[in-house]
Amino acid sequence: MSPNLLILGGTTEARRLADAVAAAGHQGIVSYAGRVERPYPTALPHRIGGFGGTEGLATYLRTQEITHVIDATHPFAAQMSAHAVEAAQRTGVPLAALTRPAWQPGAGDNWQAVADIPAAVAALNGPPRRVMLAVGRMHLEDFTPNPQHFYLLRLVDPPEAALPFPDCAVEVSRGPFTEAGDRALMQRHGIDLVVSKNAGGSGARAKLDAARALGLPVVMIDRPALPPRTELHETAEVLDWIAHAGVNLGV
Ligand SMILES: NC(=O)c1ccc[n+]([C@@H]2O[C@H](COP(=O)([O-])OP(=O)(O)OC[C@H]3O[C@@H](n4cnc5c(N)ncnc54)[C@H](OP(=O)(O)O)[C@@H]3O)[C@@H](O)[C@H]2O)c1
């Protein structure tokens, strides 16, 4: 039986994988949550929107006769990833995750590691700072207990509603970003602290290199815990896994 893949997307890595899968002649579909207005096109078709929890995803896997699930979501998309593991177990469809290694601090970095978003919010208790808040649109509200700071927000789409901070600026951009560009951005806004999720990967790394170059501290939010699963880091490894993972139609 030839592969029919479901790629859970929303990342650069998922896009690259979709193009590689299509080039290899495999059939498949990329799934997006629908958080951004226009997902980048890939060489595979796509669908948009949640599946309706674990049960909805399991039903989707069965009805669409999916042979392999590749979870290439962002490392902070913990709910989707947990649902994928459970739905794959229920249906017997093999699952692998295409993940990025977490960023590690190097010489010259001044990182304060925090466990999660609430811990990052707590780390911002204190006198007013000028903060680059690189946590994504969905988590801005969490930071409202600390309205004393100026916040620089970088968002993929222009905000539709008023932002929840009295003093903030928005940079609308989806990258790719460069160290020089992010350094200039931070200097333009007088940033003295960066808050970042430990997303890993190269695309969003620029702000950390810029923070290091400017001697700025970084509050680094650890990744959420995920259930055990097969983790692969390269597109080629996924193609190899597709070729060798057992195909099971589910029961
Ligand atoms: N979290 C981040 O920092 C971040 C950063 C960059 C990109 N993204 C991307 O944005 C999307 C949403 O992230 P999130 O953190 O909001 O996810 P999440 O909290 O783990 O997921 C919440 C719900 O959104 C739906 N969903 C999430 N990803 C989906 C996908 N690829 N296809 C279909 N439905 C999906 C699922 O709904 P149902 O339960 O109804 O199936 C899921 O239960 C993901 O695709 C992720 O790769 C996230």
Number of strands: 12
Q: C-alpha Rg, in Å?
A: 20 Å
| Tally of alpha and pi helices | 7
How do the helices and strands follow one another from N- to C-terminus? Answer: EHEEHEHEEHEEEHEHEEH
Shape: elongated
**Largest beta-sheet details:** 6 strands, parallel
Helix share of residues? 25-40%
Strand content: 15-25%
Mean pLDDT: 94
- Class from helix and strand fractions: alpha/beta
Please explain how this structure is put together.
This protein has 251 residues and is α/β, with parallel strands linked by helices. Helix 3 links the parallel strand 4 (68-71) and strand 5. The protein has a six-stranded parallel sheet, with helices on both faces. The chain has a six-stranded parallel sheet with strand order 6-11-10-7-8-9. Helix 1 (12-23) packs across helix 7 (235-244) and helix 2 (53-63) crosses helix 3. The protein has helices spanning 12-23, 53-63, 78-91, 117-123, 179-188, 206-214, 235-244, and strands spanning 4-8, 27-32, 46-48, 68-71, 95-98, 111-114, 130-134, 150-155, 168-172, 193-197, 218-221, 230-232. Bound molecules: NADP nicotinamide-adenine-dinucleotide phosphate. NADP nicotinamide-adenine-dinucleotide phosphate binds next to strand 2, helix 2 and helix 3.
